[in-house]
Amino acid sequence: MSLSAQDANGTTLVDPSAAMVEGASAEQDPPNPMLVIISGPSGVGKDTIIAAMQERGHHPPYHYVVTCTTRDRRPNEIDKVSYNFMTEPQFMALRDAGDLLEANKVHDYWYGTPRASVRAALGKGQHAILKIDVQGAQVVKACVPEALLIFVVPPSIETLNRHLEHRKTETPEQLALRQKNAALELARQYDYDHVVVNEEGDVDRTAQRIEEIISVEERRDERAAVVV
Q1: Which residues fall within 8 angstroms of residue 112, CB to CB, at 6 or more apart?
Q2: pLDDT digits over 83-122, tens only?
Q3: Topology of domain 31-217, per CATH?
């Protein structure tokens, strides 16, 4: 469609509305990369949801930050992929050097987010996705107010407890502690920006819902750039 015409004197007339349409078709600047925190009680399926999000893919790609921890590696876990497994002295050295964005002791083990990994993702224009516990999420939110917090809840506390029991990865004492902490963590869901229910057997829908939230939030005009 022509964007201009001529009057009787041969002067070119430009249609302003047409010019706006042409400008609108130009590629828009990408949104500011976000720091996205996915939290939820132990046993709610955070690892499975993250795996589903990775399987679904995204363009531009998300960067999934690998958490550091002092707990033992489970048989199905891969070092540097599932977690950065390390000794407590190694963890403390990172914490004392300021190399962790947050560090908290949960279920008798230390967990922390490597600051360099978050900075690298944001520097490449990628959303940094953090899977961290409730304590860590609040610490990050306090020092990075621009962070987006998403809390995953189970359909019921009974479903959650059943998942924890079926994992068979903890001693009876550890299981009791996780179940007790889960009830306390669920009460903190109202501190989050969004709450998503992980329905039984529908993890792909949960992953899709989280992606939809990120897509909406990244386009908010008032969202400030993340500084870590």
Answers
A1: 67, 68, 69, 91, 94, 95, 100, 101, 102, 103, 104, 136
A2: 999 999 999 999 999 999 999 998 889 999 999 999 999 9
A3: Rossmann fold (3.40.50)
